Amino acid sequence: MTAMATGTGTRAAGPSFLQTFVSRHGSMMPTFAAVAILLVLFVGAEIFLRGDFITPRNISALLLDNAYLLVLAVGMTFVILTGGIDLSVGSVMAFSGILGARLLAEGTPAFVAVPAMLLGGAAIGLMIGILVQYFNVQPFIASLAGLFLGRGLAYVVSLSSIKVEEPGILWLQSTRIRLGDWYITPTGLIALGAVAIAAFVLHLTRFGRTIYAIGGSEQSARLMGLRTARAKVMAYVISGLCGGLAGLVLTAYSGAGYPRNGIGTELDAIAAVVIGGTILTGGRGYVIGSMIGVFVYGTIKTIISFMGAEQSWMQIIVGALLLLFIVVQRAIVARSEGRR
Predict the structure, then answer these.
(1) CA-CA distances (angstroms) from residue 191 to 140, 142, 238, 297?
(2) 269 and 73 in contact (C-beta within 8 Å)?
(3) What does the alpha-carbon distance between residue 281 and residue 268 come to, in Å, rounded to a whole number?
(4) Among 190, 311, 310, 309, which Cα is nearest to 246's?
(5) Residue 11, pLDDT score
(6) How far apart are CA 77 and CA 99, in angstroms?
(7) Which one of 67, 139, 232, 290 is CB 3.0 to 4.6 Å from 73, fit for a cystine?
(8) Is the CB of residue 306 less than 8 Å from the CB of residue 45?
C-alpha cells in the first residue's frame, strides 16, 4: 500500500530544472542578468532606431571606444573580489598617460616609455596595497590617497595636453584588422587579452583561488595556509598596472596625454564591475561579467548619443541599473547565508 501510495501521487515533486539551475549557479545570476540587459538594449535600440543600430560598424566601435574602460574594469575586478575598492584608477590612468606622452615628446623610445607607464601605475597600486594590508587603512581611504597622488603627479608632469606623435603608439589605434565589415584595433586586442589573462589567473591558478578566498572569508583563507597578505597586495598592484595599461590605451585612442583625463572614470569602472555581477562584499564574480558590464555601459552611452539626448540620462540610467544589481546581490548573499 505504501509503495502504491508513493506511485500514485503522494510522492513530493522534485525541484524543477530552473530551480536546480538557480540553486547551483546562484552566484552567476547577476552576470546572466547583465547579459539579458545587454540583449534587451540591442533589440530595443534596433527597433527604436529602425535597423540603424546593430551594424558591424557600431558593434566594432563599442570595443574601440571602451577598450580603456575594459582594462580598468579588469583590474577593479581583482580588488572588489577581495572585498576592497580602488578609487585611484582614473588618476593613475591620467598620470601614466601624461607621463608616457611627456617621455615620448622628449625623445624617449617607446620601448622605454611604455614600461615606465606601466610601472608608474603598478607603484601606486603597490602603495595602496601596503597601506591596506600592513597599516590596516580602509581601502576607501587608502585608494583615495592614491587618487590624489596620481592626479597630483599628473599635474607635476604637465599642466597642459601633450600631443603624441610616436608612430608605434598611434599604430595601436589607427590600425584596423578587418573581417568583412567588422574590425578590431590593437587597443581592442589589448583589452580582450587583459580579460583572457585575468580569467585564466582567477580561475585556474592558486593565486586566483586565494583572491576568491579572501573575499569569502580572509580569516578562513589564512587558517587554510593561503598567502592572503601577498595576494591582497598583488590585487592592488594588478589594479594599478591595469590603470597604467589603460593610460597607454587612452593615449593611443586620443593621440595625446592630458592630466585631467579620467576624472570620474573610477566610478564608471566600479559601475561596470557591479553591473557585470561581481559582489561588492567580495568572493563572488567573474571578469567576463565585468566585460559584459562595460559593454552595457558603452551601449547605453551609444544609444543616448544616437538619440541626441542629454548625457545626464547616462548617469540616471546607470544609477538605476546599479540600484537594481545591488538589490539582486543582496538577495543572493541573503539566500546563501540562509543555507549555512
Answers:
(1) 26, 27, 14, 16
(2) yes
(3) 18
(4) 190
(5) 45
(6) 25
(7) 290
(8) yes
Instruction: Kindly provide the residue ranges of all beta strands, DSSP E only, lying in 66-215, ordered along the sequence.
Output: 162-163, 177-179, 182-184
Instruction: Name the one residue in this structure whose C-alpha cell is 566601435.
Output: 61
What is the number of alpha carbons within 13 Å of residue 136 lying toward its C-beta? 0
In the predicted model, is pLDDT for residue 21 greater than 60?
no
| Total-model pTM | 0.90
* pLDDT for the residue numbered 45: 86
> Under a CB-based contact definition with an 8 Å cutoff, are residues 116 and 100 in contact?
yes
Beta bridge partners of 186: none
pLDDT tens by residue, 71-100:
999 999 999 999 999 999 999 999 999 999
Q: Which residue has the cell 597604467?
A: 244
What end-to-end distance do the CA atoms of the chain give, in Å?
38
Domains (range + CATH), the chain: 28-339 (1.10.3470)
Distances in Å between the Cα of 192 and the Cα atoms of 189, 291, 306 are 5, 9, 26
Per-residue pLDDT reduced to its tens digit, 46-61: 888 777 788 899 899 9
Q: Which residues contact 217 (CB under 8 A, 6 or more apart)?
A: 283
What are the residues whose beta carbons fall under 8 Å from the beta carbon of 270, sequence distance 6 or more? 76, 80, 85
- Whether the CB-CB separation of 143 and 86 falls below 8 Å is answered with yes
177 dihedral zone (left: phi>0; alpha: psi -120 to 50; beta): beta
Enumerate residues 6+ apart whose C-beta is below 8 A from 59: 182
> Predicted confidence band at 320 (pLDDT cuts at 50, 70, 90)?
confident
- Average pLDDT over the chain, rounded to an integer: 88
Place of cell 595602496: 128
How many angstroms separate the CA atoms of 203 and 245, rounded? 22
Instruction: Note whether 276 and 45 are within 8 A (CB).
Output: no
**pLDDT higher than 70, residue 325:** yes
Number of CB atoms found within 10 A of residue 75's CB: 32
Computed from CA positions of residues 138, 144, 147, 153, in that sequence, does the dihedral angle turn out positive or negative? Answer: negative
Please count the CA atoms within 13 angstroms of the CA of 195 that sit on its side-chain side.
22
Instruction: Give the model confidence (pLDDT) of 214-253 as tens digits.
Output: 998 999 999 898 999 999 999 999 999 999 999 999 999 9
